[in-house]
Design goal:
The complex is a heterodimer of chains A (216) and B (249). Chain A has 216 residues and is α+β, with helices and mostly antiparallel strands. Helices cover 55% and strands 12% of the residues of chain A. A three-stranded antiparallel β-sheet of chain A has the order 6-5-7. In chain A, strand 1 (21-23) and strand 2 (30-32) form a beta hairpin. Chain B has two domains: 14-51, no CATH class; 88-241, no CATH class. In chain B, the strands form two sheets. In chain B, strands 4-3-5 form a three-stranded antiparallel β-sheet. The chains are: A alpha+beta (216), B mainly alpha (249).
């Protein structure tokens, strides 16, 4: 059963959005929706939660950032993160190799957990965002909009690229005592990915929902 | 007359005016001061239920709260509509109990074994931090201490406090509790740090008999603590920090 949509706001004023209402997701306080300038931040007066954020980045800008994130993600996960050298033996490791080694050592669940949070979920976050952004930029309706956006909403919580990057730094320091460590392209790609993903997240899903609804 | 306030953006809904016209016959069951006659139930802030609204928990679409029984779905994203997350406090406590139980093996059992020509050595989470501290990278030792020891403990304590006070419908330091919840949500996933460190060391250090690293059982327990506390904070509904005056509300 679908719940009914709302009538326009009762004051008769021109609503900023289609609905005209804005609810604080953390305390249920009601506000009137309003147009936000770029970089504006609306906070709930009652609990202090962020109500809405002005997204200054246009759609093609978001698309560019997300495509950039995809490129550095592929570089980061396919090229070696570090090369260790011990008594003339070289040992390279990519993220996928590290999880495979962990799997083969018998720690299956831990291998799956790190593969999911450092590889699968970030990849899904990027891929699903592209799925929505590409048709929007081309001014077409987005296929499978609702399931894709819902999946993206859940994936955001479990994607941990920035934690993984700090983990790389600590693993490098801990192995530097016994071996000679050379940083690979992967670690720099992951640093760039952390920055790009932060920018992509900041644009938020709310603006995309509103735009995708218009194009339906 | 437009009921909305142009200055602050708030308005009185038709539902409020109905309430003003026909005040509730029965007095406030708690007997708090003068009986309220209309107006938003929550003194200064109109809340969703006052206006008969409900917000989708996934896409944040605001819809008229559906009346009548049945599983109502959001018209935009299709997610189930609930005024509050169902069984929020119970599920938070259940995940917290899981995390607390696994906290002991996570910290007592070794998370990895290093093997070299000098022999085998097991490392716990705390052992790894001491190792980082003594080998000179004190800043990183502090980061790992915060991520692996301080954050999980504070998270468990904070969520227990939040869930307990929500269950008691407490009005104690509501703004601070709301801020505490946001902090828990923000820092929660950083505890995965040590899981990644061990997985990376296992992948990086494989020099046959000269040096290798094996994951151990403690790592799984530690990862489960992190996932358990993340699920606990995802289960908690921060709107429970703000109970309505109506005991049934």
């Amino acid at each position: 059963m679908s719940a009914a949509l709302l009538p326009p706001p009762p004051d008769g004023g021109a609503p900023a959005g289609e609905q005209g209402y804005l609810l604080c997701e953390e305390c249920d306080a009601v506000y009137r929706e309003r147009a936000l300038g770029s970089d504006a931040l609306l906070r709930c007066r009652r609990c202090g939660a962020t109500l809405a954020r002005g997204h200054g980045l246009p759609l093609d800008g978001q698309l560019a950032l997300t495509l950039g994130a995809l490129v550095v993600f592929l570089i980061g996960s396919l090229s070696p993160i570090v090369t260790l050298e011990l008594q003339g033996i070289h040992s390279e490791a990519t993220l996928l190799e590290a999880t495979r080694e962990t799997w083969q050592s018998g720690a299956h669940l831990v291998a799956l957990l790190s593969l999911a949070t450092a590889f699968v979920f970030p990849l899904l976050v990027i891929a699903l965002r592209l799925w929505v952004l590409l048709p929007l930029v081309l001014r077409r309706p987005v296929p499978l909009l609702a399931p894709v956006m819902r999946l993206e909403h859940w994936m955001l919580r479990w994607s941990m690229v920035e934690v993984f990057m700090l983990g790389v730094l600590i693993a490098v320091v801990r192995s530097a005592g016994v071996t000679h460590v050379v940083l690979g392209a992967g670690i720099f790609a992951y640093m760039a990915l952390t920055v790009l993903l932060t920018a992509v997240y900041a644009a938020g899903l709310q603006g995309l929902w509103a735009l995708a609804e218009q194009r339906r | 007359m437009p009921p909305g306030c142009r200055a602050c953006g708030r308005w009185r809904s038709s539902a409020d005016e109905r309430r003003t016209a026909a005040p509730k016959a029965r007095a406030s069951p708690r007997g708090e001061g003068a009986p309220r006659q209309g107006g938003p139930v929550n003194e200064r802030y109109p809340v969703a239920a006052d206006l008969g609204l409900i917000g989708c928990g996934v896409c944040a679409l605001v819809v008229a709260a559906p009346r009548g029984p049945g599983a109502w779905r959001c018209p935009r994203c299709g997610h189930g509509l609930h005024a509050r997350k169902p069984a929020s406090v119970q599920r938070t406590f259940a995940w917290l109990a899981t995390a607390v139980l696994l906290y002991l093996p996570a910290n007592l059992l070794p998370v990895m074994t290093t093997a070299s020509v000098l022999g085998r050595e097991s490392h716990t989470i705390v052992g790894g931090i001491i190792e980082l501290w003594t080998t000179g990278s004190r800043e990183l030792a502090i980061i790992v201490f915060v991520a692996s020891i301080a954050v999980p403990l504070l998270k468990i304590a904070s969520l227990a406090l939040l869930a307990y006070s929500a269950q008691r419908r407490s009005r104690w330091r509501q703004r601070e509790r709301a801020a505490l919840y946001r902090l828990v949500e923000t820092v929660g996933h950083w505890s995965m740090l040590d899981v990644f460190v061990v997985v990376l060391l296992v992948g990086m250090v494989h020099f046959g008999v000269v040096a290798s690293v094996q994951p151990e059982a403690g790592l799984l327990a530690f990862g489960a603590v992190v996932v358990g506390t993340m699920l606990a904070s995802a289960s908690f509904d921060p709107r429970l920090i703000w109970p309505r005056d109506d005991p049934h509300g």
